[in-house]
Amino acid sequence: MTKLEAKNEYLAKNESKSISFVMGAYRDITENQMKVSDKEIRAFYEKNKEKPKYQVMAGRDVKYFDVTIVPSKKDSVAFNKQMAVIKKGFAASTNDSLFILSNSELPRLYASGHMMTFRPEGDPKARQGMTYPAAMDTVFKTAAIGQIVGPYNENGTTRIAKVMDFNSNVMKVRHILISAQKGDTKKIASAKKLADSLVKVVNAANFEEFVKKYSEDPGSKDKGGVYEDFMDYEMVTPFSDFAKSKPVGTIGVVQTDFGFHIMEVLDRKSDARFPVLAVVQKTLLPSEETKMSLKDKAYNLLAKIDRELNKKSDITDKIILFDTIARREGYYSRPVRMFDESPRVQGFTTKMAAQSILELAYNDEAEVGDLCSSPIQDDNRLIIAIVSSIREKGVPALVDVYERMTTDALNEKKANYLLKKMGSVTNLEVLAKKLKTDVKQAEVTFASPSIQGGGYEPELVGALFSGKIKDKMSSKATVGQSGVYVFRVNKTVKAPAAKNYDAEKLQMLGQIKGSIANSSRQALQKKLEVRDNRALLDAGIIR
Question: Which stretches of the chain drop beneath a pLDDT of 50?
Fold first, then answer.
């Protein structure tokens, strides 16, 4: 890393320009005002396909949409009736444990004592699965014992709860743990002897000092041995019983499976009211009838697409038609891009579905426009897919860049419209009035090529720092990535003089060192033309 490079980095970050500008934004020209035709897209492609930014890596693309297997309205009605029967039976039940075992997906949502204390969602002390909706906090905390609450939704499931009790004690203690694991007779004897001797001399004033010297509990030692805002179910029984039953200020010894605790009761809040619940949980799922109906729908849709595609001979037209039919049927098609040097797919729940996509794209006879032979099952969805691209390295086929070319061709058309509308006007105030917009202000640096109020514009920011646009000087209308701009440089703030550029040099060296291993690996892989075909091999595809 040279001194000159470090200096340039320093100047790029610390020299700034205060600018005013008027922008005709592409986003302000709606689809209703301006569109681009297929003919215009194809002409744009022929003119621009050789440009480096459109060059592609060898690989294959698949487009797909999915028919989601979800419950029908009929399923929902039947489910609601079932929950009404369960609610009535739960209210009349005299053996809640047996009732939950017979009717709930999760039999563990019942226990005696306070283990089933629930807290509202968002409570920092809440346990996973042991919550209720925060909006129902008042309902639960004002319920009567024995009252049934629900049905209510809990993270995609439906629950009915019976209020069994309320947990009202929130406690605060501090302790000194003398470790002695259960079964270690010798250690237990020595730990008891130490605890019995310490409890005679420890008091509120010196407790923290004794914690630092003797406690073997890493979870509380750095906090003076303090545990606060806990409830009885969160600690082992002897520990909780002492905290719950002894008067505030009491110091004593308690034995647990962890050893001997010299405890002091610091505080006890008895105004808390957290419900202890017994819960029946059910999930609304699609019935077999619904699953078969949606499967038939997916097969019929696949057959319909196949018939329509067979009417087209142009590959690009086939892929456009696939997107059009999906959109017309209420679905959204999305791409899966694979590269020949390491073909693999993301975004699928099951391994079988991912391998089916690889098989569709990379089988020996694969061609652009090939449809999957049947809908691909991926957990709770049925996927309809088409091979949308088989790319050779270099100049892309139109189908490979059609969507990108569509956007770029439309932006070019918008830019030409805006250039014509702006004309040769460089007075920002006059131009803003003409475009019915405002004169915006921004501070820009070479290192951060975004213009606040405009967009990401590296070429335009580069032009501002090229020296061609002097202070108090306005530019001509200039095409950018987000719109057409006219700038005025109000002031250039030079970077403060620096004794050296060591900080920049170290930072840039650190970045290079951090990427050297990956860069070297990529260079070797490129030079030796290494291909990672493990995913294909795993799917039974030999290349």
Answer: none
Closest to 12 (Cα-Cα) out of 508, 465, 498? 465
Tokens read off for 460: 């335009």
Q: What are phi and psi of 348, to 5 degrees?
A: -120, 145
CATH code 3.30.70 for 53-71+287-400: no
Quick one: DSSP state of residue 52? Answer: G
Alpha helices in 93-235 (DSSP H): 96-103, 137-141, 185-198, 207-214
CB 17 within 8 A of CB 491: yes
For the chain, domain boundaries: 3-52+402-493, 53-71+287-400, 73-168+276-282, 170-269
Provide the 10 A C-beta neighbour count for residue 106.
Answer: 14
pLDDT score at 530: 86
End-to-end CA distance of the chain: 43
Query: How far out from the chain centre does Cα 125 lie?
Result: 24
Q: Contact at 8 Å (CB) between 69 and 404?
A: no
Of 242, 215, 237, 241, residue with least CA distance to 226: 215
pLDDT number for residue 95? 93
The number of beta carbons lying within 10 Å of the beta carbon of residue 494 is: 9
> pTM of the full predicted structure?
0.69
What CATH number has the domain spanning 170-269?
Answer: 3.10.50.40
Residue 192 vs residues 170, 220, 319, 372: alpha-carbon distances, Å = 28, 20, 79, 72
What is the helix (H) or strand (E) element at residue 527, kind and residue range?
helix 502-527
- How far apart CA 56 and CA 59 sit, in angstroms, is 9
pLDDT at res. 543: 72
Q: What HEC string does 365-404 produce? A: CCCCCCECCCCEEECCEEEEEEEEEEECCECCCHHHHHHH
Q: Please tell me what DSSP assigns to residue 282.
A: E
Backbone angles phi, psi at 198, to 5 degrees: -70, -40
